[in-house]
Amino acid sequence: RKNVEDFTGPRERSDLGFITFDITADILKEKCIFDWNVKQLFLYLSAEYSTKNNALNQVVLWDKIILRGDNPRLFLKDMKSKYFFFDDGNGLKGNRNVTLTLSWNVVPNAGILPLVTGSGHVSVPFPDTYETTKSY
Amino acid sequence: AAMDLFGDLRRMNKRQLYYQVLNFAMIVSSALMIWKGLIVITGSESPIVVVLSGSMEPAFHRGDLLFLTNFHDDPIRAGEIVVFKVEGRDIPIVHRVIKIHEKENGDIKFLTKGDNNEVDDRGLYKEGQNWLEKKDVVGRARGFLPYVGMVTIIMNDYPKFKYALLAVMGAYVLLKRES
């Protein structure tokens, strides 16, 4: 985790988190989620945590679109987050309670758009110190 | 058939004409009432919107119809699909919420991104604006129908088509007889 200027937006220094993760998912395991009316699943990994600045923070770290017909089993290892994990402030330092959850948005051919949160979640504690960038 | 039409028009006396006009006005009023009712029920100023761009493909395509709700107590959470308007611009944008920072008192600021876009929406926001707020939200997408909205896009891009359609509808209503 580093403390850098959030170059994607506001110009103040904020905490930037780095997470690597593995995802193993078997989407067809329980019952067929891809029924006749499901066009695709929008899968995303989000980190949820509280800080001094904000009572609730949610950041989408990674997402993937699974179309009807795609391989429903995911074995992703050592994935890096797709998007920069900037906090609004310095709330990642020493934060023991950052929870990662996998959720998905079911997109039907026509009809209701449900958002489902996976029942499992993983807690990721952030260290108390910043990583210093190596300079070459 | 055209001659029959004119024959019909000439044979109608004033009373019949007024009756048809009133019928027409009633249909228009009922449609407006249903629309206003939808606005009240959903809490959104625009409960049905048409997708205008391909930035949410492959989920939504240009011409798809979206049904929105905007309940005040519905919290905005990451992953939801919201329709918002940038301050000062009329065009509603349909994208996904990818980041939220909410304070204890409920004040929330959030960031959006189209599924099909490489980068987040900061380039779309107002100059210097980095976050969206609840007041920018028109509604949350709850349901959708494909293709149906294409009619409004065609009417927008080809105004002659719109006028032709209105003329045909007007003629039909004014000339149809109650049996």
Write a brief caption for the model.
The complex is a heterodimer of chains A (136) and B (179). Chain A is mainly beta.
Descriptive report:
The complex is a heterodimer of chains A (136) and B (179). By secondary structure, chain A is mostly beta strands. Chain A has one domain. Chain A is built from no helices and ten strands. In chain A, the strands form three sheets. Chain A has a four-stranded antiparallel sheet, with no helix packed on it. In chain A, strands 1-2-7 form a three-stranded antiparallel sheet, with no helix packed on it. Chain A starts with a strand and ends in a 12-residue tail after the last strand. Mean pLDDT of chain A is 73; it is low at 5-11. With 179 residues, chain B is of the alpha+beta class. Chain B has two domains: 1-42; 48-146, Ribbon (Umud Fragment, subunit A). Chain B has four helices and seven strands, in the order H-H-E-E-E-E-E-E-E-H-H. Chain B is elongated. The model of chain B has no long low-confidence stretch (mean pLDDT 86). The chains are: A mainly beta (136), B alpha+beta (179). The A-B interface holds A 8-10, 39-40, 42, 44, 46, 48, 53-60, 63, 65, 67, 83, 88, 103, 105, 107-113, 115 and B 58-60, 77-81, 96, 98-104, 109, 111, 115, 120, 122, 130-131, 141-146. Strand 5 (56-67) of chain A pairs antiparallel with strand 4 (92-102) of chain B.
Number of separate helices of chain A: 0
DSSP E strands of chain A, number: 10
H and E string of chain B: HHEEEEEEEHH
Radius of gyration of chain B: 22 Å
The most extensive contact between chains is: A-B, 32 and 29 residues
Assembly classification: heterodimer
**Shape descriptor of chain B:** elongated
Strand content of chain A: over 45%
- Average per-residue pLDDT of chain A, rounded, comes to 73
Order of the strands making up the biggest sheet of chain B: 1-2-7-3-4-5-6
CATH architecture of the largest domain in chain B: Ribbon
Shape of chain A: elongated
The number of E-state strands of chain B comes to 7
**Helix-strand sequence of chain A:** EEEEEEEEEE
The structure class of chain A reads mainly beta
Stretches of chain A where pLDDT is under 50 for at least 5 consecutive residues are 5-11
- Look at the structure and give the CATH class of the largest domain in chain B: Mainly Beta
| CATH T-level fold name of the largest domain in chain B | Umud Fragment, subunit A
The domain tally of chain B reads 2
Using only CA atoms, what is the Rg of chain A? 17 Å
SS-derived structural category of chain B: alpha+beta
